[in-house]
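tokens incoming
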């Protein structure tokens, strides 16, 4: 294969490991920015294509939801478009950035020659700044996301990129000294509780706008707050599911958090209103000492919100740790070369990440559920019935 074609497929370092030293030196001399950009873009397409097929085909087929051929037919177009979007993003960003850098260099060289009009003078001074090429190239290359199939995944990528942009802008302002008088506690960590509040608000009130994958993740680790159907419950009677419980939490806030009196303690004293009939099997079996409707819905078997939260953290921490172990083990397989060089440090670092991520995710989910009960106990009924979820 010709060296000029080889450099678009493998890097000089990779080529040197499989070929003779003299020839690899010639390939290294022929390497260029365009070749490196093409290698990065083509590999991103291959990795993205394989990842989408693994997520949308291999995992559902292993679970046994549908056949492989049916899943592959549906996911192939999505995988190709997703890979093309990332490939176009990498290629366009590299070439636009290189073009703008050359343009800026020419403008800087001509600063001694004033333009004929004031508008051109402002435009040239703007284009000659060092921040102009990366900003414009990022904005223009970001339009490649339109190739990505529409859906929650594209929205998630856009939100993630916007968040990282805000983070980079904040760090730039802080490093340049534009934010000298901010308090010590002010920082990027404040974005997380705000974003989490918006997600919980969307999950409770706008379920159709909430990502299904994130909802499945949250509900899968919330068994302490979502009562399952008892084994001795009659099979011919309906039992509320997860969606019914979430919808009735929103309905409780719309009704300004009415009081609750258990029908077990005083039969006939509390009749479940028609708009709560869907969750009446849970409310009718709630503990007699629970005074709040949201508590009766979320943890009907235990009247103590604190004990439920502590039990949730102790129980779900193990489940989340297992999930994080599989996740970080998969990441380790992708970096097997680095793991092979120093396995001990990788194991120590992975254990630290698993422990930190597991505790973080567990306490975040538990705090979200516990705050529903805590706010009903602390705040008045008519005070921010919906805004308390933000």
């Amino acid at each position: 294969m010709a060296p000029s074609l080889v450099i678009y497929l493998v890097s000089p370092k990779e080529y040197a490991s499989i070929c003779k030293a003299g020839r690899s030196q010639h390939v290294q001399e022929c390497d260029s920015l365009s070749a490196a950009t093409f290698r990065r873009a083509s590999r991103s397409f291959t990795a993205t294509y394989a990842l989408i097929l693994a997520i949308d085909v291999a995992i559902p087929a292993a679970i046994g939801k549908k056949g492989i051929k049916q899943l592959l037919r549906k996911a192939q177009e999505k995988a190709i478009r997703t890979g093309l979007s990332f490939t176009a993003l990498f290629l366009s960003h590299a070439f636009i950035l290189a073009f703008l850098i050359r343009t800026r260099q020419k403008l800087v060289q001509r600063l001694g020659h004033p333009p004929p009009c004031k508008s051109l003078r402002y435009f040239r001074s703007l284009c000659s700044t060092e921040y102009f090429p990366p900003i414009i190239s990022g904005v223009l290359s970001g339009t490649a996301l339109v190739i990505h199939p529409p859906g929650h995944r594209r929205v998630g990528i856009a939100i993630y990129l916007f968040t990282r942009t805000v983070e980079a802008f904040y760090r730039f302002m802080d490093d340049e000294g534009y934010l000298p008088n901010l308090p010590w506690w002010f920082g990027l960590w404040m974005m997380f509780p705000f974003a989490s509040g918006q997600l919980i608000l969307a999950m409770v009130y706008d379920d159709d706008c909430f990502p299904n994958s994130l909802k499945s993740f949250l509900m899968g680790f919330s068994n302490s707050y979502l009562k399952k159907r008892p084994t001795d419950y009659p099979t011919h009677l309906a039992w509320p599911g997860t969606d019914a419980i979430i919808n009735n939490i929103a309905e409780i806030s719309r009704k300004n958090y009415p009081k609750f009196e258990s029908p077990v303690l005083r039969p006939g004293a509390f009749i479940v209103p028609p708009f709560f009939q869907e969750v009446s099997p849970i409310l009718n079996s709630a503990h007699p000492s629970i005074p709040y409707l949201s508590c009766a819905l979320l943890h009907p078997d235990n009247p103590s919100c604190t004990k439920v939260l502590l039990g949730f953290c102790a129980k779900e921490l193990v489940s989340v740790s297992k999930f994080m172990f599989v996740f970080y083990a998969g990441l380790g397989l992708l970096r097997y070369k680095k793991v092979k060089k120093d396995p001990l440090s990788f194991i120590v670092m992975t254990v630290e990440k698993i422990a930190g991520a597991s505790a973080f995710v567990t306490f975040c989910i538990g705090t979200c559920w516990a705050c529903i009960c805590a706010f009903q106990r602390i705040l008045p009924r008519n005070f921010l019935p919906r805004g308390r979820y933000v």
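note: Residues 68-109 form the longest helix (42 residues).
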